[in-house]
Specification:
3 domains; Immunoglobulin-like; binds flavin-adenine dinucleotide; 496 residues; Alpha-Beta Plaits; 28% strand; eight-stranded mixed sheet; binds iron/sulfur cluster; Aspartate Aminotransferase, domain 2
């Protein structure tokens, strides 16, 4: 549909467009994010709302996607109208009574993970005899940095339990042990998934704790973006020469995983989360709760400065505990408006939408050519003629990227289906072009390439030893139904 959009100038419509644009100023939502999170992940419902609200977007019938026809200001209006995006603060962070920036006021607790708020709340609860036990997670003394869930009954043990271990901990098992040992009032510290387990055990009609009315549990939830499998990440650290028994603190901050020998000093080693992604627990890819939405009190670091915590009191009792702990000098608190809420919302959104990418499958082709053909004279790529309406076959079905592995003389080519339906019997042909001739043809047929799915092909470059890695590689793709849908020559040159 390429009809001209009606001129919207000087209309009440334009007034509301500008009004919302101002409201969204400074937010990071944009058309690019709409395409990345909603369209290219295949969860777009094709409702057309994005195109309907924006003067520079139109609906592309053939691709089944919105398409830019003018200059995008990045205002984010399209993103914020889309029924598939999650933008409402309560959808992102859950319900809460009030929030604080907090940190400890207890000298022995300084050196907690962030502001030491969780430990300080536990100290307050023990001193005030509001709990008779707490469930926390500590390091296994015999196996460095392995988490062990523990029942503790004193303030001293609460102080010893401070600090984060970025791995799953079987906290609910310890909680059930505490219940069996007849502890009646228990503070439970856990990640959002741990908190969900306890909430379900209380709320579900068949929940184990629902009918055990002698037990009260205060749920203290930790913000959580992801955790890592100890069986995978610790051997990696050890291979990197890190002595885990000497590491005093691990911390995730602004997309980086830091390791410290001195918790008050600078990290001795840092990795980007992307570098460690393969060690992430698979469950965390399916998780959408950053801020422990079902806790009484949620505590994290994002949104508050260094050595401080962002705290949400979600229930009446949660708010009373925080206020009284501050009143009795266990905690220093600052009001809700000191939280950098945009930072929390941004991270919460990343987590909510991460689920959209999990269904994407990657196909790796490692074997050699499946079909053979005689080398032939170069086929010139199809060229779109200016002014000629593109045929279906010339439309953009695939996006292609390359990555050169110079050591193994391998060109890794990724082809992604960029339309919302399956490409069937996709024939891919890769050849090296030398002057006018083709050599080393590599052909394969993919029976089905699902929407937004990627195929990775390792194409071996036929370059004699000692010669510079330089080549022109023609990549072509066609299907039975649409004919040739892609053709481009990739130029390979040695890195400068
Ligand atoms: C796996 C994981 C991922 C996290 N990701 C983020 C994040 O992305 N963004 C963010 O803002 N905050 C995150 N946090 C929370 C952050 O690390 C701090 O726990 C939080 O800010 C509280 O700080 P504090 O100084 O009050 O903690 P402290 O006073 O030091 O107390 C920490 C408490 O956490 C408990 N604990 C430690 N490890 C675990 C565990 N694996 N499971 C259950 N309980 C544990 C300890 O027993 C202790 O009671 C994460 C925490 C964990 C465990
Ligand atoms: S101008 Fe605003 S509404 Fe239009 S595409 Fe760009 S971000 Fe979306
Ligand atoms: S508003 Fe969202 S769901 Fe609707 S067509 Fe646009 S991207 Fe798709
Ligand atoms: S990301 Fe989710 S599943 Fe993973 S540890 Fe955190 S709360 Fe649990």
């Amino acid at each position: 549909m390429t009809e001209e959009k009606t001129d919207q100038t000087e209309t009440p419509y334009e007034y509301s467009f500008e009004y919302i644009q101002k409201k969204l100023e400074g937010k990071k939502d944009s058309f690019g994010m709409l395409m990345k999170e909603i369209v290219r992940t295949g969860i777009c419902t094709q409702c057309g709302t994005c195109a309907a609200v924006c003067p520079v977007l139109e609906w592309d019938d053939l691709a089944g996607q919105p398409k830019l026809i003018g200059k995008c200001t990045g205002c984010g209006i399209c993103y914020n109208q889309c029924p598939r995006t999650i933008t409402d603060p309560y959808q992102l962070m859950g319900d809460f009574k009030t929030g604080y920036v907090a940190n400890t006021n207890i000298p022995e607790v300084i050196g907690g993970q962030d502001g030491g708020t969780v430990t300080s709340i536990l100290c307050y609860l023990f001193d005030e005899h509001l709990i008779d036990a707490a469930v926390v997670t500590m390091k296994d003394p015999n196996n460095p940095w392995r988490p062990v869930a523990q029942i503790i009954t004193s303030k001293d043990d609460a102080i010893k339990s401070s600090g984060s271990i970025y791995s799953h901990s079987q906290t609910v098992e310890a909680l059930m042990d505490a219940v069996r040992q007849d502890f009646r009032s228990i503070a439970f510290v856990g990640t959002p998934c741990n908190i969900d387990a306890v909430s379900k055990m209380f709320d579900s009609p068949t929940g184990m704790l629902k009918y055990f009315m002698r037990c009260h549990v205060l749920k203290i939830g930790l913000f959580c973006m992801d955790s890592f499998a100890p069986e995978a990440i610790y051997p990696f650290f050890e291979k990197e020469g890190i002595d885990l028994s000497k590491v005093q603190k691990m911390d995730i901050n602004k997309g980086k995983f830091h390791l410290y020998y001195d918790p008050q000093g600078e990290p001795f080693k840092s990795y980007t989360i992307r570098q460690l992604d393969k060690f992430k627990s698979s469950s965390c890819n399916f998780c959408t709760d950053l801020t422990a939405e079902n806790a009484d009190i949620s505590v994290g670091s994002v949104g508050s400065g260094a050595n401080k915590n962002t705290v949400f009191a979600r229930t009446g009792i949660g708010a009373e505990i925080i206020e009284d702990a501050a009143e009795k000098d266990y905690l220093k608190i600052e009001p809700f408006n000191t939280i950098n809420l945009n930072a929390v919302l941004f991270l919460a959104k990343l987590k909510k939408v991460s689920q959209y990418t999990i269904q994407k499958r990657k196909v790796f082709i490692v074997r050699d050519s499946e079909e053979t053909e005689e080398p032939r004279i170069e086929t010139k790529p199809e060229v779109e003629q200016p002014g000629v309406t593109p045929t279906l076959g010339a439309r953009k079905f695939l996006s292609v990227s390359k990555d050169l592995n110079e050591k193994d003389k391998l060109l890794n080519i990724s082809l992604t289906n960029t339309i919302g339906y399956v490409l069937e019997d996709l024939k891919i042909r890769i050849v090296t072009i030398e002057e006018l001739f083709e050599k080393s043809p590599w052909i394969t047929t993919i029976r089905e390439l699902f929407p937004f799915e990627t195929i990775e092909i390792g194409y071996p470059l036929d370059i004699p030893v000692g010669e510079p890695i330089k080549a022109n590689i023609l990549v072509e793709a066609s299907t039975e139904s649409f004919g040739k849908i892609f053709s481009r020559t990739l130029k390979i040159a040695p890195k400068e």
